Amino acid sequence: MERLTPEPAAAVVPKAPGRWQIATVTAIAVETPTVKSFTLALPIWMPHLPGQHYDVRLTAPDGYQAQRSYSIASSPLTSGEIQLTIDRLDDGEVSPWFHDVVEVGDKVEVRGPFAAYFVWSGEQPALLLGGGSGVVPLMAMLRHKRLTAPELEMRLIYSVRLATDVIYAAELAAGEETQLTYTRVPPPGWEGHSGRVDAAMIAASGVDPARGTAFACGSNGFVESASRLLLDAGFAPERIKTERYGPTG
Ligand SMILES: Cc1cc2nc3c(=O)[nH]c(=O)nc-3n(C[C@H](O)[C@H](O)[C@H](O)COP(=O)(O)OP(=O)(O)OC[C@H]3O[C@@H](n4cnc5c(N)ncnc54)[C@H](O)[C@@H]3O)c2cc1C
């Protein structure tokens, strides 16, 4: 049972992980027709590791609760706030609420940051493989790399269905790190890769499997296929880190 009395002032510094807190939505950006980014100001902020996530909890008036995890898209250098990027699933409980109900100024219950495994230390070269909204934690890595170690080798292979599905499109286009592939319809005049991520794309990334760490995030199918390709390309299992978002995709 949560204590209802206030804690003694300055006796203990409250630690964010595991402790629910009320964040305030300070900005909402439309990324694609089905994806929005939400900037949240946190009363108890702590720097995260790129790749970590927060839990979000919604409570209905009758007490029913729904809880989901969302990766942090922002660099830990954005002090006091985090950005979450959420794909709207039509038959979902939580993601449509974010898209259809949440406005700037609203309060959202969150806790985090969590995860110790799917994190980029900020030092090693990296090959990032994202499918759909699986690009979100990889964007935190890429943003942090651009801010802290622009010369470090980091490549992003990003698989989307259509040109309109590219999240962070302008920001990704502003750098040289990204190789896009379109699995359904490429944009007119596209001369890059089309279809699923394959061995040629991994080889073209130029990331040395002996030196780099690979991070793959997306649906189960995407992550399984990416893991096989990475093993075939010579990445040792301990150099392949994966995060799965949902049962389908
Ligand atoms: C560590 C972690 C980090 C995550 N980070 C992000 C993120 O950054 N952005 C983001 O958009 N999502 C992310 N997810 C997925 C997120 O937690 C939810 O599962 C997703 O938003 C669906 O929740 P919902 O309540 O809208 O749908 P639900 O009510 O949970 O599900 C509705 C329907 O969609 C199916 N479904 C559930 N999840 C998915 C999915 N991911 N893809 C396809 N179908 C699904 C269900 O089987 C069901 O049929 C993350 C998941 C994990 C475990």
Please characterize this protein's 3D structure.
- The protein is α/β, with parallel strands linked by helices and 249 residues long.
- It has 2 domains: 94 residues, Translation factors (Elongation Factor Tu (Ef-tu), domain 3, Beta Barrel); 119 residues, Rossmann fold, CATH 3.40.50.
- Helix content is 18%, strand content 34%.
- The protein contains 5 helices and 12 strands.
- The strands form 2 sheets. A 6-stranded antiparallel beta sheet has the order 4-3-6-1-2-5.
- The N and C termini lie far apart (38 Å).
- The N terminus is likely disordered.
- The site of flavin-adenine dinucleotide (FAD) has 23 residues, from strand 4 and strand 5.
Which tags fit this structure?
six-stranded parallel beta sheet; 5 helices; 2 domains; Elongation Factor Tu (Ef-tu), domain 3; binds flavin-adenine dinucleotide; 249 residues; single chain; Rossmann fold; alpha/beta; disordered N terminus
Share of residues in strands: 25-35%
Bound molecules: flavin-adenine dinucleotide
Main sheet? Answer: 6 strands, antiparallel
Structural class: alpha/beta
Q: How many helices?
A: 5
Strands of the biggest beta sheet: in what spatial order?
Answer: 4-3-6-1-2-5
Helix content: 10-25%
Q: Could you report the average pLDDT, rounded to the nearest whole number?
A: 93
Specify Rg, calculated over alpha carbons.
Answer: 19 Å
Q: In CATH terms, what is the architecture of the largest domain?
A: 3-Layer(aba) Sandwich
Give the tally of structural domains: 2
Write down the secondary-structure element order: EEEEEHEEHEHEEHEHE
The counted number of beta strands is 12
**What name is given to the CATH topology of the largest domain?**
Rossmann fold
Outline? globular
The unreliable regions are: 1-11
**CATH superfamily annotation of the largest domain:** Nucleotide-binding domain of ferredoxin-NADP reductase (FNR) module
From the N-terminal CA to the C-terminal CA, the straight-line distance is 38 Å
CATH class of the largest domain: Alpha Beta
